[in-house]
Specification:
The structure is a single chain. This protein is of the alpha/beta class. It folds into two domains: 101 residues, Rossmann fold (3-Layer(aba) Sandwich); 104 residues, Rossmann fold. The chain is 33% helix and 26% strand. It is built from six helices and ten strands. The strands form two sheets. An eight-stranded mixed beta sheet has the order 3-2-1-4-5-6-7-10, covered by helices on one side. Strands 8-9 form a two-stranded antiparallel ribbon. Helix 4 links the parallel strand 4 and strand 5. Helix 1 packs parallel to helix 6 and helix 5 packs across helix 6. The chain is globular and about 45 Å long. The structure holds glycinamide ribonucleotide. The site of glycinamide ribonucleotide has 15 residues, from helix 1, strand 5 and helix 6.
Length: 210
């Protein structure tokens, strides 16, 4: 049985999708803990209500990114995870932290990376006149919102979209692709060569929505 730790900063809807998929599909894994850098992250309540251990490491209590990441890693390691999942965890991580979990640290970002790393992705996609937007699950590397791409979901950008309507349409797809990607990693179905991720059985690594 593998052990998964999920990091959140807020609502945690991607974390919920992963918890539900893990239970519903009977993964050979358990969600060992949900950890937040914010005590008021509403996702913590969902986790506790589902019998999952929760912890808070408040970044404001630390004088440097290094000090925060060191404490965060200690708390994570207490749960001995095989997989660490960033699910709306809105902190820039130090290289030391990322290297510690390299190959088992995943992130979801609400854009078709490498386009639009960082914040305000949906507004930026609309302003750039993009006809497609989406989300990307990737292995985390030290460079923010980069790293080998596991799965992407593409959705059309509509003429009347606002950042909110586009975000809502993308989020529906996030809830499909993130549990899928975590499961593939748990099931050891992924290979990475030269920064390119392949599913061992050649499963499609893109999800289209209209
Ligand atoms: C999601 O849209 C996720 O892709 C994004 O934050 C949201 C969290 O929602 N993550 C990032 O922007 C990371 N760069 P959630 O808390 O409901 O899962």
């Amino acid at each position: 049985m593998k052990s998964i730790v999920i990091l959140i900063s807020g609502r945690g809807s991607n974390m919920e999708a992963i918890v539900h998929a893990c239970q519903r599909e009977g993964w050979p894994a358990r969600i060992a803990a949900v950890i937040s850098n914010k005590a008021d992250a509403s996702g913590l309540q969902f986790a506790a209500a589902h019998g999952i251990a929760t912890a808070v490491v408040d970044h404001k209590a630390f004088g440097s990114r290094e000090a925060f990441d060191t404490e965060l890693a200690q708390v994570i390691d207490g749960f001995q995870p095989d997989v660490v999942v960033l699910a709306g965890f809105m902190r820039i991580l130090t290289e030391g932290f990322v290297r510690r979990y390299e190959g088992r640290l995943l992130n979801i970002h609400p854009s078709l990376l490498p386009a639009f790393p960082g914040l305000h992705t949906h507004q930026r996609a609309i302003e750039a006149g993009c006809k497609l937007a989406g989300a990307t699950v990737h292995f985390v590397t030290p460079e923010l919102d980069h790293g080998p791409i596991i799965l992407q979901a593409a959705v059309p950008v509509r003429a009347d979209d606002t950042a909110d309507t586009l975000a809502a349409r993308v989020l529906v797809q996030e809830h499909q692709i993130y549990p899928q990607a975590v499961r593939w990693l748990v099931d050891e179905q992924l290979s990475v060569h030269g920064g390119v991720v392949r599913h061992l059985d050649g499963r499609q690594q893109v999800c289209w929505s209209d």
